[in-house]
Amino acid sequence: MTLFRWTASAALAAIATFASANDPLGKGPEGTEMAVFAGGCFWCTEADFDKVPGVVDTVSGYIGGEATTATYEQVSAGGTEHIEAVAVFYDPDETSYDTLVEAFWPTIDPLTPNAQFCDRGRQYRSALFYANEAQQRTLQASVSALGSSGQFDQPIVTELLPRTAFFPAEDYHQDYYQKNPIRYNFYRSRCGRDARLAELWGEDR
Question: Which segment of the chain is annotated as a signal peptide (predicted)?
Answer without folding.
Answer: 1-21
